[in-house]
Design a protein that fits this description.
The protein is an all-alpha fold. It has helices at about 1-25, 30-55, 70-95, 115-145, 160-175, 180-195, 200-215, 225-250, 260-265, 270-280, 295-305, 315-320, 325-335, 335-340, 350-380, 385-395, 410-440, and strands at about 60-65, 65-70. Strand 1 (about 60-65) and strand 2 (about 65-70) form a beta hairpin. This is O antigen polymerase.
Length: about 450
């Protein structure tokens, strides 16, 4: 029966892909959803694909929960995923009947000399601090190990500097006519994250670049030419190898003879998070409030940082008092591993299931598609809309493996974006007033 459900899942997924491609060709679907769909397949569908095409046993976990989920849990996991995909299909039908994405809307640039000058000035000002922070970060991880970053608040200060550095680079990427040098700098600095084993941060820094090029390409079909497909394929598998090697080196484990299978096994563990959440759904530590974790936990973290209170990191107190499903499940399954800095990870579908079962999964899929569609529609309204969408969409792309409302968290990058926006507009208004006064 489980194998039949897995095959049904593949059929529903293929229907979703076909409907999306038809709508995309008719200019009735957002381009950004292609990135989300790719992330969803990687993070959620990898184990299902392996189970159908290889001898891999679906529903087997080797991380925190060690063993195989029972039959009922497996069927609930697959059904939850299927309903989420059906929700995305319903969302695509709704958007196709209400919105049209005109080709001319993608032929918009935001080259702006004043924003570029402001960004360059800011970039040069913080560059020495960025270099110092990177040296401290590399030295800290080399001496203490990657997971020491998550033990009882053992973090090094200065993360805001690096986020601000990337924000100014994104600003320059959008506002400058010649973008190649900026793109090269972004990728080089992002690769530092691969070097130290923080694969997640690498993805978050590269996602906005992918989003940028998808949103500005008037003729998206050029990427489907043979030479471009080959180039993209080489780049894609090169990144897979780099990320896999990064994690293997970080955790001191063998990469395995089949790097693709190993990569898919590791990336697809989010489906096990759904299984663990379903298995533990009746535990008193879990409640509907987990869906609000991005709002509540990020607000508490921000308030603590403003008053100088250090984060507790992975601790019993945080697991019990926070809204984070990832922290709660990790603590429930293996307290010692959790307190040592490890975690089971997250999954948006797991949160939705805890909140409202199958119905929440269906509605969640629909809302995800609609929200991505709206973001793409408003992106071209202004420079600041565009960069905001770049940052927000990057968080949504990771939500299959993270939190459903991850885009609503008051994280450093969004806070810095607000400061960047208000600072620029204030300086612009001040300079305009001075010019007006001189003319009088």
């Amino acid at each position: 029966m489980v194998n039949i459900l897995l095959c049904i899942n593949m059929i529903i997924l293929l229907i979703c892909i076909c409907i999306y491609l038809i709508a995309l060709k008719s200019k009735k679907a957002p381009r950004l959803f292609a990135l989300y769909l790719g992330a969803f397949i990687l993070f959620i569908e990898s184990h299902i694909i392996l189970a159908i095409t290889t001898s891999f046993n679906f529903g087997t976990s080797e991380w925190f929960f060690n063993g195989e989920f029972d039959y009922n849990t497996k069927t609930e996991v697959i059904t939850s995923i299927n309903l989420f995909i059906i929700g995305m299909i319903l969302g695509s039908v709704f958007i196709a009947s209400t919105i049209t994405y005109k080709s001319s809307s993608y032929d918009v640039t935001f080259e702006n000399k004043s924003i570029a000058r402001f960004s360059w000035l800011l970039l040069v000002s913080i560059l020495p601090f960025v270099v110092v922070y990177l040296i401290k970060l590399i030295a800290f991880i080399s001496s203490n190990g990657f997971y020491s970053l998550y033990i009882n608040g053992n973090k090094i200060s200065g993360g805001y500097i690096l986020d601000l550095f990337f924000l100014t680079l994104y600003s320059l990427l959008i506002s400058l006519k010649n973008k190649k040098k900026i793109l090269f700098i972004i990728l080089c600095v992002a690769c530092v994250y691969l070097f130290i084993g923080t694969r997640l941060e690498f993805m978050f820094k590269v996602f906005p670049v992918l989003i940028y090029y998808i949103l500005i390409s008037k003729n998206i079909h050029k990427y489907f030419r043979l030479k471009n497909i080959l180039a993209i394929s080489i780049l894609f598998w090169g990144l897979i190898f780099s990320m896999q090697y990064s994690v293997s080196a970080r955790d001191n484990i063998e990469m395995g003879s089949n790097i693709i299978t190993t990569f898919l096994k590791q990336q697809g563990v989010s489906v096990n998070v759904i299984g663990i959440a379903i298995k533990d759904k009746n535990n008193s530590l879990l409640s509907e409030s987990v869906i609000l974790s991005p709002l509540y936990d990020s607000a508490i973290s921000l308030a603590n940082s403003l008053v100088g209170v250090q984060s507790n990191g992975n601790s019993v107190e945080f697991a019990e008092n926070s809204f984070s499903l990832s922290h709660k499940l990790s603590y429930l399954e293996d307290p010692s591993a959790y307190l040592a800095g490890y975690g089971v990870g997250g999954a948006a579908i797991a949160e939705l299931y805890i909140v409202g079962g199958y119905l929440a999964c269906l509605i969640g899929g629909m809302l995800t598609y609609i929200f991505i569609s709206i973001l793409e529609k408003i992106a071209k309204k202004s420079f600041f809309n565009f960069i905001f969408v770049m940052l927000i969409t990057g968080k949504i792309l990771y939500s299959p493996r993270g939190e459903f409302l991850s885009f609503m968290s008051a994280d450093r990058m969004l806070i810095l974006f607000l400061i960047f926006t208000f600072s620029y507009k204030f300086l612009l208004a001040t300079s305009n007033k001075k010019m007006s006064f001189k003319n009088e």
